[in-house]
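Tokens in:
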């Protein structure tokens, strides 16, 4: 087979490619290869497969009978980009055609050379440098680049740089860039970004002049796509298109106090090309201005401090200082608009104080001119308008945290009002307003709120003082103490007091009841009828449904206001508990309208009812005594005594029988005494009022009987009670008419 012949030739000649002056037969038209043939070594080959030339000739590769690649023989280029005697042994060229070889030096520039296009405009060698040896050279579209090693001139072994180099064609500046692009899956609907045809650019290096390269960070392709007017290539040595710049490791050297130049950022509005450019300037604005005076030795920056008329055209004490305004109406005015620059306020003081003495974040000292007084002085004033949530005219926050573990006293806001010492009279003196907060990790021995006054028109809910004590072992919403005075009131209230908690009073409650305050005094009319209409109840409060009411849990007893109102309307009033809010003013629980009962007002009715009832009892007792004295029907009929021996099976325990029952005139009470003891037989009305004692004696065990004459009793139901040493048996006796 032909395959065997080819392999035999390769084995015989060691894969030597013959190069001669005359074209051999097999190189004229080529030899066809059928589907089963190949060029290679047999499976049993024990020597390398060699593709080589013996003579100093290149090895060329072609497809479709077109030149594709070349491996140089041992050779030296006489000139490459004006550099003489360039060694090019074994350099490899890969190119679409051999047009590249038609132009000197007619060979690859480095160990691997990837060349695009042919001889047309092939001036790529002008970016070449002799150190471009062990790497990959790229040429095409009249430009050239190289990625690989650069051995240092005069350096020893191991002194090597890795290089990424690119060049432009000479004589015609076209701004070739070195770009870093990231790509992902392609999406034809996205014009920019990693899924676009262009890809997402992370950085580019852009040569501007012969000795300048600007570095741009960001996707400048996408930036130019969005803003083709202001974005093209990086215009500064370092140009950050978007995003923020961070320095992870800041310098910790001492401050260079002798320097006077500072980095600033130009904020000239767009479309100025200077916007965002980092520049330098003096602070103060210039080194020779008299607006501000810099004293580096004393670390002072001052203005407008000299006596009027002593500083020429420069600021003296007559000058006003305006920041953000040209028309200050105070010595110093700071004017700021959030729309100009988004910061949280106009003035911020961050002061680190010393460990002893007083430390002031902001100190204001207002005093009159000599020989005069001030009518409306204000040390510090805060004016807030347009509040939609919670607003504070003046707010103070103090955090306790003494290193020794003990803080004596803190105030959220502290105010002191001092009385006069010149004999004048001060009409009223007030302290201040404040809040005191406890925090986890520490304790407060005692926490207080403050005093306040609320008045004026247009107020919905008005609180003179609102105080809240919580989160402590002992809490006081309001703590008052009065002493060392003629009249002392720890709390004095003109008006109603509404409490949702329990009241505890050590020395009782006194209600104004002086005769001098009253007129048209009359006794209560039939208080018993009022009390009899009131129905006491037992119930449970809806504790969870009404947390703002602070109801106790468990079963309670009392009256229902709506029922009391129908009987004694004067003892019921409608009232309300106000809504509760959190520190931000958000409603936590709503207001509750409800009715309350004046339980103390029921006391006169109870006293009157008891007196009225006692009168009725006295009258009934008199009637009973008269009835019993004149009623022979209550006396025994004969003497009671032991019955005959009880029959077999007769009940042998304490019991009482009425035979007959119902009864017209006479009936017999039979009872059994199981053990010796005191026996008492009594008769009472059905509602328990005693009528008579029929028998009272010491009795031995046995069965007894007693004949009872009911002739004088009116028809009805009566109770017969048999007591034996306190053990009671009761039976009903029904008296019927004859």
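Residues out:
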């Amino acid at each position: 087979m032909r395959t065997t012949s080819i392999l035999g030739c390769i084995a015989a000649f060691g894969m030597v490619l013959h190069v001669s002056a005359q074209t051999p037969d097999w190189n004229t038209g080529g030899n066809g290869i059928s589907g089963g043939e190949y060029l290679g070594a047999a499976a049993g080959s024990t020597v390398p497969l060699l593709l080589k030339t013996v003579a100093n000739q290149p090895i060329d590769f072609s497809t479709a009978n077109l030149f594709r690649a070349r491996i140089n023989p041992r050779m030296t280029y006489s000139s490459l980009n004006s550099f003489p005697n360039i060694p090019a042994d074994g350099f490899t060229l890969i190119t679409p055609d051999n047009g590249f070889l038609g132009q000197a030096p007619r060979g690859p520039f480095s160990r691997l050379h990837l060349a695009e296009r042919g001889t047309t405009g092939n001036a790529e060698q002008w970016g070449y440098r002799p150190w471009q040896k062990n790497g990959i050279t790229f040429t095409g579209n009249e430009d050239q680049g190289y990625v690989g090693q650069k051995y240092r001139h005069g350096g020893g072994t191991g002194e090597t740089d890795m290089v990424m180099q690119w060049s432009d064609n000479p004589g015609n500046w076209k701004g070739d860039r070195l770009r870093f692009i990231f790509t992902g899956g392609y999406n034809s609907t996205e014009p920019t970004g990693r899924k676009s045809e262009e890809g997402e650019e992370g950085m580019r290096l852009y040569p501007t002049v012969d000795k300048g390269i600007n570095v741009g960070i960001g996707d400048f392709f996408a930036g130019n796509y969005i803003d083709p007017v202001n974005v093209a290539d990086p215009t500064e040595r370092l140009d950050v298109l978007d995003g923020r710049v961070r320095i992870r490791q800041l310098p910790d050297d001492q401050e260079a106090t002798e320097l006077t130049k500072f980095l600033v950022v130009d904020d000239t509005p767009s479309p100025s090309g200077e916007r965002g450019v980092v520049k330098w300037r003096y602070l103060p604005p210039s080194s020779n201005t008299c607006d501000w005076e810099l004293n580096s030795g004393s670390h002072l920056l001052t203005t407008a401090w000299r006596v009027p008329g002593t500083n020429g055209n420069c600021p003296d004490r007559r000058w006003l200082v305006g920041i953000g305004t040209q028309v200050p109406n105070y010595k110093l005015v700071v004017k700021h608009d959030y729309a100009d620059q988004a910061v949280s306020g106009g003035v911020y003081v961050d002061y680190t104080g010393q460990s002893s003495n007083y430390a002031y974040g902001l100190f204001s000292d207002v005093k009159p001119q000599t020989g005069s007084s001030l009518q409306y002085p204000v040390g510090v004033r805060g004016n807030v308008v347009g509040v939609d949530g919670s607003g504070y005219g003046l707010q103070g926050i103090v955090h306790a945290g003494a290193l020794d573990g003990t803080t004596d006293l803190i105030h959220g806001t502290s105010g002191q009002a001092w009385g006069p010492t010149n004999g004048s009279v001060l009409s009223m003196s007030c302290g201040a307003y404040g809040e005191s907060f406890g925090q986890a990790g520490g304790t407060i021995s005692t926490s207080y709120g403050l005093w306040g006054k609320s008045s004026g028109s247009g107020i919905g809910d008005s609180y003179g003082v609102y105080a809240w004590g919580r989160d402590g072992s002992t809490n006081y919403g309001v703590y008052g103490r009065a002493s060392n005075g003629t009249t002392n009131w720890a709390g004095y209230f003109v008006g109603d007091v509404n409490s949702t908690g329990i009241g505890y009073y050590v020395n009782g409650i006194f209600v104004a009841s002086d005769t001098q305050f009253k007129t048209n005094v009359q006794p209560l009319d039939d208080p018993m009828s009022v009390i009899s209409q009131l129905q006491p109840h037992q119930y449970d409060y809806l504790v969870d449904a009404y947390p703002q009411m602070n109801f106790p849990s468990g079963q309670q007893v009392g009256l229902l206001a709506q029922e009391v109102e129908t009987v004694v309307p004067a003892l019921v009033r409608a009232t309300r508990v106000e809504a509760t809010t959190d520190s931000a003013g958000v409603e936590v629980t709503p207001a509750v309208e409800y009715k309350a009962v004046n339980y103390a007002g029921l006391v006169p009715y109870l006293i009157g009812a008891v007196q009225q009832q006692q009168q009725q009892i006295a009258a009934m007792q008199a009637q009973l005594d008269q009835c019993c004295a004149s009623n022979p029907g209550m006396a025994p009929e004969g003497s009671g005594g032991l019955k005959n021996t009880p029959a077999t099976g007769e009940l042998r325990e304490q019991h009482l029988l009425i035979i007959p029952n119902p009864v017209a005139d006479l009936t017999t009470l039979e009872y059994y005494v199981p053990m010796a003891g005191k026996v008492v037989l009594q008769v009472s009305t059905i509602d328990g009022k005693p009528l008579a004692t029929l028998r009272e004696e010491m009795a031995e065990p046995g069965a007894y009987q007693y004949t009872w004459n009911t002739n004088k009793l009116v028809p009805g139901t009566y109770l017969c009670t048999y007591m034996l040493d306190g053990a009671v048996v009761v039976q009903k006796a029904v008296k019927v008419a004859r």
